[in-house]
Amino acid sequence: MIKSTGITLVPHLGYKELNPLGQAEWIKFVAMFLGLEAQANRIFDGIEQRYGAVRRLAASATFRPTVFSGEMHGGNWFAIGGRNHLAQLFRDAGADYVLNDENTGGVNIEFEQMYALAADADYWRILNSFPGDFSYEALRASEPRNALFKAFRNKGVIYCNMRRTPYYEISPVEPDVLLADLLAIFHPELAPEDYCPKYYRLLP
């Protein structure tokens, strides 16, 4: 439809970046079309500095928990690959992601395979658009076997509801905030006592 207007289309490929900071740096690309390069550089420099500060703080942790991601959909588990930017976020926040493959995007695997990898993982990250209040009961109802995971039993589900939080709209340029959210969950002893998460929080 837009092509028919004769408007030149420019692809934005920030989502393909394997590093969270690489995604945020695409604001410099957009700024070139608006004549705001200097402002974009200042904004990104701030993001980079804050991200680095949180990453260094996470590196001081003496224990690294394990984490997995995704849910069952259509008979398969949709996870993210070991080289995905989210996996890098986990590592930078002081946790180990259960998948160590070379996939950069989404990975469809069977429940049994995920369970073999993540049965004893400390945390489980879930991002969805649940109508109403998502809960452990809802997670069990969607797939009874979910209750088998240690992260379910120990209330270690990390959750973000996209119906209430503009995750994909804003988080690509706020990797520092995502990292701080995860640090507060993985290593609460390293986060400020009054820290207020924006995207991720433990499911109550």
Describe the structure.
With 204 residues, the chain is of the alpha/beta class. The chain has one domain (1-204): Nitrogenase molybdenum iron protein domain (Rossmann fold). It has 9 helices and 8 strands. A 5-stranded mixed beta sheet has the order 4-1-6-7-8. A hairpin with a 2-residue loop joins strand 2 (71-73) and strand 3 (76-80). Helix 2 runs antiparallel to helix 3 (37-59) and helix 3 packs parallel to helix 9. The chain starts with 19 loop residues before the first helix and ends with a strand. The relative contact order is 0.15.
List the helices and strands and how they pair.
Blueprint: H1 20-24, H2 26-34, H3 37-59, E1 66-69, E2 71-73, E3 76-80, H4 85-92, E4 96-97, E5 106-109, H5 111-118, E6 123-128, H6 136-142, H7 150-153, E7 157-161, H8 167-170, H9 175-186, E8 201-202
Parallel strand pairs: 1-4, 1-6, 6-7
Antiparallel strand pairs: 2-3, 3-5, 7-8
Structure, briefly:
The chain has 9 helices and 8 strands.
Descriptive labels:
204 residues, Rossmann fold, 9 helices, 39% helix
What summary fits the major beta sheet?
5 strands, mixed
State the CATH architecture: 3-Layer(aba) Sandwich
Residue ranges: pLDDT <50 for 5 or more in a row?
Answer: none
Rg on CA atoms, Å: 18 Å
- Which topology does CATH recognise? Rossmann fold
Strand count? 8
Q: Could you say how many structural domains there are in total? A: 1
* Oligomeric state of the chains in view: single chain
Give the overall pLDDT as a whole number: 94
The level 1 CATH classification is Alpha Beta
